[in-house]
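[job 0417] fold request received: Co-chaperone DjlA N-terminal domain-containing protein
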Amino acid sequence: MIAKLKKFLSSHSQAVTPEEQARQLNLAAVSLLLEVVFADETLSTEEAKLLPTLLTSALSLTQAEAEELVDEAKKIQGNSISLYEFTHEINQQCSIEQKQKLILAMWKLAYADGQLCRYENQIIRRTSALLHLKHSELIQMRNLAIESQR
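[job 0417] inference complete; emitting structure tokens
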């Protein structure tokens, strides 16, 4: 029974193309960014402008690709039950530096409207913990985001 399960899992993991893996990773990252955007239940104009800019620069996407990714991520994020399903994908494929950049982007989105909502703060802190980042890394990324706002 266990051998059959291992065979199934290995054949399933091989069926995923590198392009599909990259797309799943991007969707996970965008879904986490959307968690921050919708944490305070309002989408400010600053957040709406910043999200595609972050995606085009960080993921080397065109504006149209970024908007398509956001639309797809909204559907996935709306049906999600926890942050774990997104952070698990990121933990599987990303380095510490990439995780730090994601947390930095989350902080930038949280501060984009000029004020940090307690729910935004909570989501970023939980995400950071699920990504196995140190508290000092979380604070360092927050400070960088604050400095970039000035």
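[job 0417] notes: The longest helix spans residues 18-37. The mean pLDDT is 86.
[job 0417] exit 0
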